[in-house]
């Protein structure tokens, strides 16, 4: 009798393992299917072989990783580079090994997408001193490592200006995925932007998880609850910097018939659900594609690592998307704010 | 043919059939994904062109198998007495962070410092497993439910500890949270010298081949000896097979439940150490999660026997190692997860089939020996 019960449980757990496997497949599918073509003739003998390692989630996340891939693809068409992109396992345990496999296969430069690569890039860069590395969203930590950073606070400032100008209730909201220094930059810029237009506007701020707990980037349910509360309290535009959790913010906006502001990529285009596209007034673009492409171009020109490169408004490393045309009428105001930041008349804070 | 050999042969045939079938089924998936199954199969054995890359890949493969093996052992100890310790996941994460933190608070000569860290990890894992054991013995709470719930508590507790009380210095511009860095004397020496025996250059990857591998082998032998060669091991198995019968023959099943659960938890506590002491030198937000759940699959695949678990862990590590090689060969890496899932499922099915076959063969053999004699009725 015990044996039977045991068997049933064993089968149950196997089903669980299969489910986990299926879930992992969902995340990883599509990774690494792109062909690395033979370099075109104009690339001459010194072939540019660029390797890129995605963060967990890999290609097809409609956001961060896909943006990085867009930059890589541009390097292929514009610079004739041979490209290869790898996705880590669902538990991210092989980030370092992916970098090493790329290095061993002769790829140079190699790019790690996401701050989680900080540690592994440092070690791998020390093991392969002749290869140039870059890491997105993390500072340089080796003589052959370039840190690709973004002035998220500047883009968020523009998002704040847009939100404040468009808000009829003088009440807006901000949903951050994880309360770490990176996401606080979004908050600081957004708040400064809102206050520059309407100093008395009310701003609700909510972080989904505290620093170190990265589940806040993939918890649409939490995002939805947080945004629902803000809309109920009277906010009419909510800006999110919460990765996949942003989907919940859009759902809440659609249910409340209010507006939301997307992040990283042009989410009005990338979000699949057509009923949600309409609520996305604009998106704060973080041009990871620009960062990746510019890094590869600079490498080709002989640039060496050891420093950080920050992509800001001046080089259009950040900005607002205009799909849907909802912010076209306030274009002048946004352009003026952008010009003031570029000219240094406005210094956007990076800490709230 | 002797029955034991027969049985072993059946097991091996069953495993081989399962793996061949798994490859066939996965090939269908690979073709459906628009890739070439032959390219995928070659990628599994492609360890790179240069000697350095071969060494690195062997190291990655062996290193991956170590935590999987320990995790499989931890789950198997519970399995042996029909205890489903789903809580390995929580036990190892909690043990890893406490051990990493305690290890960073002092410095001692390497053998002592490493021993203290290992003991702390085992103690934390064991104590955390004691909770569901006591709940089961005193209140009859199902250990599956209890350990699943305790997993959530442990996972959230560790993510709180790593950013709160146990947080260490964070390098400028880095966003990963981490415990304080362990001293040099806390790092487990690597065993890169084995590459010299084969005339290979040592791997350059951080940490090389983890020396914890040796400790894992010792652990496997000890677990085998305890379960198969001691009175305690007999008591554990007897209580698992039939509690009342064990009680009648002088084994207290309640004591055995607590002992087996604590032993399982203590082993689970060690799962995170190879990574921390071999490579990372701290518990940080990149710490490998999910090994406790993988351990269930590894233990099932290895039929809860240390040798079988070792093979299962090596197989899983071998498949995982190919993640990069597969993608370089233009095959989606998710193929690995499909193959792993299919193999586990098929091996469990094969186990059941071989069990029944073996039983039938045994019955036939016994019937032949008895000739036409009718079996003696035994009074119930």
UniProtKB/TrEMBL annotation, chain A:
Keywords: Cell membrane, Lipoprotein, Membrane, Signal. The keyword Transmembrane helix does not apply. Its main location: membrane. PANTHER family: ABC TRANSPORTER GUANOSINE-BINDING PROTEIN NUPN (PTHR34296:SF2), TRANSCRIPTIONAL ACTIVATOR PROTEIN MED (PTHR34296). It is found in: Cell membrane. One of its GO terms (cellular component) is plasma membrane. Pfam families: Bmp. Belongs to the BMP lipoprotein family. It comes from the Bacteria. Residues 53-349 form the ABC transporter substrate-binding protein PnrA-like domain. This is BMP family ABC transporter substrate-binding protein. It is a lipid-anchor. Signal peptide: none annotated. It comes from Nonomuraea phyllanthi.
Automatic annotation (TrEMBL), chain B:
It is found in: Cell membrane. Coiled coil: none annotated. Keywords: Cell membrane, Membrane, Transmembrane, Transmembrane helix. It is a multi-pass membrane protein. Its main location: membrane. One of its GO terms (molecular function) is transmembrane transporter activity. The keyword Thylakoid does not apply. The chain crosses the membrane at residues 58-79, 114-131, 143-162, 207-227, 257-277, 283-302, 335-354. GO terms for cellular component: plasma membrane. It holds the Pfam family BPD_transp_2. InterPro entries: ABC_transp_permease. PANTHER family: ABC TRANSPORTER, PERMEASE PROTEIN, GUANOSINE ABC TRANSPORTER PERMEASE PROTEIN NUPP. This is ABC transporter permease.
